[in-house]
Amino acid sequence: MTVFFRRSRMFLLLALTLLLGPLVGSCQYLRYVKALDPTMPGTKPVNHAPFDALLKKHVNGQGMVNYRAFLADSTQLSGYLTTVSNTLPNEQWSKDDQLAYWLNAYNAFTIQRVLRGYPVKSIRQLGGDKTLVNTVWDQRFIRLGNDKDRYCLNDLEQRLIRRKFEGEYRVHFALVCAAISCPKLRNEAYVGSRLNQQLEDQARDFINDPTKNKLTPANAPQVSEIFDFYPGDFKKGDNTLAKTLNKYTTGNKVAAEAKPTFMPYNWDLNEQK
After folding, report:
1. Which part of the chain is the DUF547 domain (predicted)?
2. Do residues 161 and 171 lie in contact, with contact meaning Cβ atoms separated by under 8 Å?
3. Cβ-proximal residues to 32 (8 Å cutoff; 6+ apart), any chain
4. In angstroms, what CA-CA distances link 5 with 125, 200, 232, 268?
5. With a threshold of 0.85, does the pTM exceed it?
6. What is the C-alpha separation between 263 and 265, in angstroms, rounded?
7. What are the pLDDT digits (tens) for 218-266?
8. Are 199 and 67 within 8 A, CB to CB?
9. Cis bond upstream, residue 221 (ω within 30)
10. Where are the alpha helices (DSSP H) in 27-161?
11. 121 to each of 58, 63, 114, 124, 137, how far by Cα in Å?
């Protein structure tokens, strides 16, 4: 998952980058202004069984990944991602099949990027430190269809998933950026036929994980920085952060007027020890 500032900060960053572009590079941030929706007519929903088998083999029940063992199966992962790249969705697919495709693509390409740089303590070490410019999430290594351009993880999350599926805040509990504070990597692939239940499971698991959210006391909960990275995504319609937390908590409810603080994000690799 990529780190984005609050929207006001993001707009300020874009303005500063526009003014100082020659000093920081090629203004790569401009690509994020435009939505992305690659498509391919005539395709059928992808069979995610190969990725499902790899997740079951290398991801435990706590969402931790055995990257060292995964290296031995990197060819199988590449084969699955070749199928993904060659089989873009179209509007004949159900919305759930389309979203399952992009969630799996993001998570699988993230694993591939880690494996290419492994061993590493944190995925952030694989890129630079300029948000929207040269972080690991801005590296263009993803092929989509026959397009000669290459895309990055930020393209998939920011330009595609968050825009095409606007209002589906549960994607933030399913996209996994290979860090300990990210949601747990599910040890099965997402599939359209069960996507709603899978996303419900992810939301419930994430919000009730005390290493990511502490919902007591009710008027001063401590919550994941994910809610600070994307505050607007949890305020669509009449929704609020408190309503989201209370919908999925299995413990105490938070107060509607609660002012949460945000827990520090642990960027260490989500690796089995």
Report:
1. 91-207
2. yes
3. 132, 154, 155, 158, 159
4. 20, 26, 11, 20
5. yes
6. 6
7. 999 999 999 999 999 999 999 999 999 999 999 999 999 999 999 999 9
8. no
9. no
10. 49-58, 67-71, 74-86, 95-117, 153-154
11. 18, 17, 10, 9, 16
